[in-house]
Amino acid sequence: MGSAGVEEVVDRIGFGRFQRRLLLACGVTWAADAAELLAIGFALPGVREDFGLDATEAGYVAAAAFVGMLLGATFWGTIADRIGRRRGFQLTVLVFAVFGTASAFAPSAEWLIAARLAAGFGLGGALPLDFSLMSEFLPRRNRGRYLVLLESFWAIGTLAVAIAAYLLVPDHGWRPLLALSGIAAFLVLWIRSRVPESPRYLVAAGRPEEARDVLARVARENGVAFEVPPLEAPAPTASVGVSALFVPALRRATFVHWGCWLLIGLAYYGLFVYLPTIFVERGFSFVRSYEYSVILALAQVPGYLTAAWLVERWGRRPTLVVFLAASGVFTLLFAVVDSTFAIVAAACLMSFFALGAWAALYAFTPESYPTLVRTTGMGWASAMARIAATAVTLLGATIIAGSLGGALAIFGTAFLLAAAVASFGAETRGRPLQA
Q1: Does some domain include residue 430?
Q2: Dihedral sign, CA of 159, 343, 286, 36?
Q3: Stated pTM of the model
Q4: Of 27, 137, 210, 389, which residue is least crowded by CB atoms under 10 Å?
């Protein structure tokens, strides 16, 4: 029996029951991540009232998780390229489950900030690891589509937390909402306990027989009669860690992805963390702002599905560019329209395209890096979004209170600049994952 590369074996096994179950397991993770991260936006008005915080102090609370995510993305991305996707993921989920739940019991703003910081540290590693692991089990055909479908679970988490906020916060306060999102992470930990290690990582780490066992399991679950051949080791990588992202072959991808993640992070988190506040500034009550947040979450679902189709039809780069540009246009429209219908319609279209852009970016980024630095690449790219999110959440409440139109103009322009940066990326559709 001749040898074969992991890519070839994964392609021959194809997409089946194993990948569908993995998509569900990773998707539940993604939904819980969204709920944990966005819950603070719905909780913030109550937090401010309970602890007597001004706009600047509220910004510290909102930004704490993003500071933790920045630290976590850079730390866990590099660590997972050394200890494995599965082990790294389990540790990150445990951290954000424990401290996410602890946030609900914080006796003061200082304790809440500390708990959110620690939860963000785990969350910052879980997000990029989820996509790296999923991408490495997918055959080349339609890989982008299934990565976008994984990202679509973010809309489910967004919708769940918006509905939970609508049902819980007005009558019961913010603590049950944060407790619920933290407890969901423990469910994720249990669901993910049976997910195997990535065979790509195992081969790259010099453990080819373990990789063959994992691939044989995938073939059995998919009902494919296929004997996994000996696996070829990838060509040695000259370096690992963040320095490897700047070798000549990867430098362009790194700058493009860092720029895109930085700009989309600024625009998206500025808009969606403060969405209830923005609707209040537009003249709506907090209860009505929660209702509209549910509508915007629903608008994300067709955005994801459209992006899932287009990343295979058009490609990753054109889909990303178009969705980012449209996000910018509708954000600017959201800033200037004044009727209730026009405000909600512009916001829905903004949500549709913004989340589709995220989906395309999450499909695009892991395909741009080889196995031994894939989670490092994802981790550091996502760290750029956390830098932007930290800045915008620290200053967002003050900026929005000072000039809502100016804040929305900044967010819309950031989307447009991200589209320009993305146009310099190298298309990855149909290309094998780099070993």
Answers
A1: no
A2: positive
A3: 0.73
A4: 210
